[in-house]
């Protein structure tokens, strides 16, 4: 009996239509999703020639009957939905009935399948969309699909394919992503010469991460998990006087459980900084999506923790009732639309933020050198990994000194180069030694900052989960160039950037004061009259309320001129004009809509930055002690409001290693 | 060049010039003294390009000439020499030989021609200002100069000379110190306004504190200010820019007065400020018929209050201030009684010393309130 049926024209027309097969990786994605929908536990993929020559996927899923095996290649033939209403409740990865016919029309495809309930299996061969062979055969349960000579009948398409290694790296990321999402399953990806991924089932996501991307990356990640009832969220609350009535009504009709929104996964510590979003993976009900709303929520969560120009590593699984999310948005099925957008956005943002706050991670010296995007060319997309690049670092901006330290002294311990690795163009790398069951990927595929051999890298000491903050135990020794405080405690040697440290202290204080409406403001002797450009004027109108809440008192003073009469107490009067101009410039440039809270945060960051102790300022030791003490009290002592690191730690272990004592 | 000079005389002048020698310079010659010997006199010059100081001491000149010597090293060395005569002799290739008793040292300087030429003291338009007057005026205004420069505040003080008075004003945009001395005689000026850089103010202050001279000779040209104090001449680059129109901010209708002893209020503020916000030092002054109540509170440290009895008849008022701003003035006011003159919590407050010995000076301090 067949499972698959052809959708009515009416339903078919409601499906977002368009290109399905763009490149080998999209074939892999579609076939993988089919296998997952078929309930497979074990999936093996073989590719040759970057997927142009061969893509073969073997699963142990439910298989197809002979009739279904033929029907599957009809357009809009699917077993996954039936009616237009079903489109609102899609629980499978596929639902269009488009993938197999589209793939079959641009390749030579051979399907071998054996449904669990059938006596024997079937073989179907199709070339360029035409069935060339159908026969019965004795086959193992499950399905194997081999796609050869992709785009053999569309030479124009073939030409647009990238180098073999590039296509392979795309395929590898697709498989990696799904392997990360399903730790309970067995995944393998093989090229003609290499085992690229071999990942037997494991018990948890973190073990899967360890398997696929290594300890280094896992150590840089923080687990997160949160859930919240979807109970009427996002929908306007009825006024109190009518609520009673509504409750009664609900009882009458019997309440339908609105379900809940669940989130789990991993987010990177602030010291991990990527140059693009390629290490952000978001799964919604098991589907890998590129969603701007979630991306934005992530960026928001990291605001003031990492610089605005870099991105974290994020692996996020969102689960919610299928009715909460519309997957029928884009032909590639990589976009979704949430029913309760702002609720979801804030939930994601706040959950990540909370995890980051709790962890208070500390940048390691070595990690910092590499995490710094300008310092480590191996992080740029397309850069090949070279062992000698790791030591290059460019230091010091405000001090007016720029030095390219070829061998930074703290790097004394040597990190064995990845001599055996193949450097693929996309920064994707494969270990040549196929005997190792799990290959590691380079930076662009996932996570780990640099190809670095695990065995020689000191494992960062776990922070004692003890409640006294480590920073509170620091004893200042002195300053480097009147700009960086050197301090020690039982964990090792620390360097604290005095400006950003003070900036962090002030930032949190300004926010706190603003929240309690207890902003201290200093009146000016003479109003500061500032002329604005038309766009600055527009920006000023946007933020003026928030300026007031932050301690400014500003009056219009003729057209496009304002007079500042009062300013936050932390500022010298000489700094005000510059600060206001800077803020207006910033908000002027910002295209995206800002909410009041974010404007407030920016203003606070700006005030903190101007009021903070500058570099090149000698500090007495009592002042240093005060600063470290205040820093320890902050919520996020490890990065400044603009996301730069505040402290670096050179752990005792690293020191001992560098001196070759261990 | 070859001279003999007494250690005492030399050290005194070297000490006086230390403030001008550039320490962290990237221009090596600026960390040197220029020594010039002629007419039984050793002239010593130091400059950091903003300021220049030229001084001299008596010397036995065997051979006239000039040389440059590393300033810090020489000063440290001379300090350690026993009292007595020191002979200094220029050798070849900028080497200098310094001998005293059994001590014998050679140091290397730089070519004399590298040393920047200092502007020459003008011969005309010299104004004589009593040293004591200038000293007082600087001490009572210098703390209000802001350390950063911007369009609206200048890091310098304004000196106004009129035929019968001298005024000095300094501000950082939050507060303003203003001092005036009448009954002076500057016959050749009508209304001369000069911006004196903070650095020059500080240097003048030190020079005035270590001189017996009664009079400071002051002159200026387009770019330079000149001050001659005894045998020493300080030159300073002029600040360009417009000093804010300070007359406009002097309060005219403050009608709430209270007079207290400087010491009392200053120690009350110091105590209470311990519990104010670390940075802004915000405190509140409450004026009512009991007198002045000083109070503060901060989320981190707690709260504090101090009361000073005084007669006060006007309506009660509470005004916030940066405690440091008040303390700066109270310190400069040096004892006696001070009078607080307020209007309301938004307007400028005025503070001035009442009836102490410096009555010839009209000293006032304007300070803007804080909103706490
Ligand atoms: N590996 C497989 N094992 C069992 N059944 C499969 C497998 N691959 C495809 N099928 C069946 O073939 C049908 C068609 O697959 P196809 O991928 O074309 O469409 P779909 O998955 O339903 O929707 P979409 O186009 O969104 O992927 C599926 O509905 C499913 O019933
Ligand atoms: Mg499918």
Chain-wise SSE layout:
The complex is a heterodimer of chains A (662) and B (372).
Chain A: E1 5-6, H1 9-13, H2 24-37, E2 42-48, E3 54-59, H3 66-71, E4 77-78, H4 99-105, E5 108-114, E6 121-127, E7 130-137, E8 142-148, H5 155-160, H6 164-181, E9 186-190, E10 195-199, H7 205-213, H8 215-219, E11 221-229, H9 240-253, E12 260-268, E13 280-284, E14 287-289, H10 292-302, E15 314-319, E16 325-326, E17 337-338, H11 341-359, H12 365-371, E18 393-395, E19 403-405, E20 421-423, E21 429-431, E22 475-480, E23 484-489, E24 492-497, H13 498-515, E25 521-531, H14 534-549, E26 553-556, E27 561-568, H15 573-589, H16 596-611, H17 621-633, E28 647-651, H18 652-658
Parallel strand pairs in A: 2-9, 13-15
Antiparallel strand pairs in A: 1-4, 2-3, 3-8, 5-6, 5-8, 6-7, 9-10, 11-12, 12-15, 13-14, 16-17, 18-19, 20-21, 22-23, 23-24, 24-28, 25-27, 26-27
Chain B: E1 2-6, H1 7-17, E2 32-38, E3 41-47, E4 51-58, E5 60-63, E6 65-70, H2 71-80, E7 85-90, E8 95-100, E9 103-108, E10 127-130, H3 131-139, E11 156-162, E12 165-171, E13 175-181, E14 192-197, H4 198-209, E15 215-220, E16 224-229, E17 232-237, E18 256-261, H5 262-273, E19 282-288, E20 291-298, E21 302-309, E22 317-322, H6 323-332, E23 337-342, E24 349-354, E25 361-367, E26 370-371
Antiparallel strand pairs in B: 1-5, 1-7, 2-3, 2-6, 3-4, 4-17, 7-8, 8-9, 10-15, 11-12, 11-14, 12-13, 13-25, 15-16, 16-17, 18-23, 19-20, 19-22, 20-21, 23-24, 24-25
Describe the structure.
The complex is a heterodimer of chains A (662) and B (372). Chain A has 3 domains: 198 residues, 2-Layer Sandwich (Heat Shock Protein 90), CATH 3.30.565.10; 125 residues, Ribosomal Protein S5, domain 2 (2-Layer Sandwich); 202 residues, MutL, C-terminal domain, dimerisation subdomain (formyl-coa transferase, domain 3, 2-Layer Sandwich). In chain A, 31% of the residues lie in helices and 23% in strands. Chain A contains 18 helices and 28 strands. The longest helix of chain A is centred in the middle third of the chain and has 19 residues. Chain A is elongated, with a radius of gyration of 29 Å. Chain B has 6 helices and 26 strands. Chain B has 3 domains: 113 residues, DNA Polymerase III, subunit A, domain 2 (DNA Polymerase III, Chain A, domain 2); 121 residues, Roll (DNA Polymerase III, Chain A, domain 2); 118 residues, DNA Polymerase III, subunit A, domain 2 (DNA Polymerase III, Chain A, domain 2), CATH 3.10.150.10. The longest helix of chain B has 12 residues. Classes of the chains: A alpha+beta (662), B alpha+beta (372). β25 of chain A pairs antiparallel with β26 of chain B, so a sheet runs across the interface. Bound molecules: adenosine-5'-triphosphate and magnesium ion. Magnesium ion (MG) binds next to α2 of chain A.
């Amino acid at each position: 009996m067949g499972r698959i049926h052809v959708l009515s024209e009416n339903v078919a027309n409601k499906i977002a239509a368009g290109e399905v097969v763009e490149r080998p990786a999209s074939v892999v994605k579609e076939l993988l999703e089919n296998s997952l929908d078929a309930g497979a536990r074990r999936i093996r993929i073989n590719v040759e020639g970057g997927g142009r020559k061969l893509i073969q996927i073997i699963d142990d899923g439910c298989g197809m009957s002979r009739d279904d095996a033929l029907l599957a290649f009809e357009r809009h033939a699917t077993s996954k939905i039936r009616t237009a209403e079903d489109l609102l409740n899609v629980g499978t990865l596929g639902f269009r009935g488009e993938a197999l016919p589209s793939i079959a029309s641009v390749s030579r495809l051979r399907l071998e399948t054996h449904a669990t309930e059938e006596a024997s299996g079937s073989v179907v061969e199709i070339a360029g969309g035409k069935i060339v062979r159908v026969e019965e055969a004795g086959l193992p349960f499950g399905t194997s699909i081999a796609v050869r000579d992709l785009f053999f009948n569309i030479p124009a398409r073939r030409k647009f394919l990238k180098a073999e290694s590039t296509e392979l790296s795309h395929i590898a990321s697709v498989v990696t992503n799904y392997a990360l999402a399903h730790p309970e399953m067995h995944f393998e990806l093989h090229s003609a010469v290499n085992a690229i991924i071999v990942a037997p089932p494991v018990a948890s996501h973190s073990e899967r991460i360890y398997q696929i991307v290594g300890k280094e990356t896992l150590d840089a990640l923080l687990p997160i998990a949160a859930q919240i009832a979807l109970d009427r969220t996002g929908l306007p609350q009825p006024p109190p006087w009518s609520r009673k009535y509504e409750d009664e009504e609900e009882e009458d009709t019997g309440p339908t459980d609105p379900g809940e929104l669940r989130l789990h996964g991993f987010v990177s510590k602030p010291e991990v900084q990527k140059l693009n979003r390629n290490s952000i993976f978001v799964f919604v009900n098991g589907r890998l999506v590129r969603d701007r709303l979630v991306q934005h929520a992530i960026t928001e969560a990291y605001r003031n923790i990492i610089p605005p120009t870099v991105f974290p590593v994020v692996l996020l699984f969102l689960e919610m009732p299928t009715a909460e999310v519309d997957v029928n948005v884009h032909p590639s099925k990589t976009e979704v639309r949430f029913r309760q957008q702002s609720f979801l956005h804030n939930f994601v943002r706040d959950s990540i933020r909370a995890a980051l706050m709790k962890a208070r991670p500390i940048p390691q010296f070595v990690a910092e050198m590499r995490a710094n995007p300008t310092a480590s060319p191996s992080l740029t997309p397309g850069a090949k990994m070279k062992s000698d690049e790791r030591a290059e670092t460019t230091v010091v901006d405000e001090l007016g000194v720029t030095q390219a330290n070829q061998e930074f002294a703290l790097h004394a311990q040597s990190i064995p180069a990845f001599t055996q690795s193949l450097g693929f163009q996309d920064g994707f790398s494969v270990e040549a030694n196929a005997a190792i069951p799990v290959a590691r990927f380079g930076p662009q595929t996932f996570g780990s900052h640099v190809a670095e051999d695990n065995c020689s890298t000191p494992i960062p000491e776990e922070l004692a989960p003890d409640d006294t903050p480590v920073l509170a135990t620091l004893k200042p020794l002195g300053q480097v160039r009147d700009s960086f405080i050197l301090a020690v405690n039982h964990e090792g040697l620390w360097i604290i950037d005095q400006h950003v440290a003070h900036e962090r202290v002030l930032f949190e204080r300004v926010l706190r004061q603003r929240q309690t409406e207890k902003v201290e403001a200093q009146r000016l002797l003479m109003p500061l009259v500032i002329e604005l450009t038309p766009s600055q004027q527009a920006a000023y109108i946007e933020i003026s309320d928030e300026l007031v809440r932050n301690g400014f008192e500003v009056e219009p003073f003729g057209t496009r001129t304002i007079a500042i009469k009062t300013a936050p107490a932390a500022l010298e009067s000489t700094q005000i004009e510059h600060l206001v101009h800077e803020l207006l410039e910033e908000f002027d440039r910002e295209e995206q809509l800002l909410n009041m809270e974010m404007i407030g945060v920016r203003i606070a960051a700006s005030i903190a930055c101007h009021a903070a102790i500058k570099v090149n300022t000698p500090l007495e030791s009592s002042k240093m002690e005060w600063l470290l003490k205040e820093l320890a009290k902050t919520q996020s002592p490890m990065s400044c409001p603009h996301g730069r690191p505040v402290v670096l730690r050179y752990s005792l272990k690293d020191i001992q290693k560098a001196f070759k004592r261990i | 060049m070859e001279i003999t000079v007494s250690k005492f005389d030399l050290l005194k002048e070297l000490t006086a010039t230390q403030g001008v020698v550039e320490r962290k310079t990237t221009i090596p010659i600026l960390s040197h003294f220029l020594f010039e010997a002629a007419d039984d006199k050793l002239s010593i010059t130091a400059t950091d390009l903003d300021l220049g100081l030229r001084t001299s001491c008596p010397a036995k000149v065997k051979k006239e000439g000039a040389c440059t010597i590393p300033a810090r090293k020489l000063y440290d060395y001379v300090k350690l020499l026993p009292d007595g005569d020191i002979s200094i002799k220029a050798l070849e290739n900028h080497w200098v030989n310094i001998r005293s008793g059994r001590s014998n040292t050679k140091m290397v300087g730089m070519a004399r021609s590298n040393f920047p030429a200092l502007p020459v003291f003008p011969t005309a338009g010299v104004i004589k200002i009593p040293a004591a007057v200038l000293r007082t005026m600087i001490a009572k205004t210098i703390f209000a100069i802001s350390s950063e420069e911007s369009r609206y505040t200048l890091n310098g003080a304004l000196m106004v000379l009129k035929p019968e008075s001298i005024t000095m004003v300094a501000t950082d945009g939050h507060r303003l110190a203003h001092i005036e001395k009448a009954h002076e005689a500057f016959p050749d000026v009508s209304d001369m306004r000069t911006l004196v850089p903070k650095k020059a103010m500080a240097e003048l202050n030190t020079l005035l504190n270590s001189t017996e001279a009664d009079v400071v000779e002051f002159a200026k040209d387009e770019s330079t200010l000149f001050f001659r104090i005894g045998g020493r001449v300080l030159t300073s680059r002029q600040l360009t820019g417009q000093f804010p129109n300070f007359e406009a901010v002097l309060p005219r209708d403050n009608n709430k007065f209270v007079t207290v002893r400087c010491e009392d209020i200053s120690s009350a503020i110091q105590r209470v400020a311990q519990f104010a916000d670390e940075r802004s030092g915000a405190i509140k002054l409450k004026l009512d018929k009991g007198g002045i109540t000083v109070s503060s509170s901060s989320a981190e440290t707690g709260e504090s209050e101090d009361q000073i009895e005084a007669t006060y008849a006007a309506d009660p008022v509470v005004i916030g201030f940066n405690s440091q701003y008040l303390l700066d003035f109270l310190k400069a006011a040096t004892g006696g009684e001070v009078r607080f003159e307020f209007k309301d919590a938004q307007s400028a407050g005025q503070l001035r010393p009442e009836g102490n010995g410096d009555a010839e000076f009209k000293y006032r301090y304007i300070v803007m309130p804080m909103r706490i």
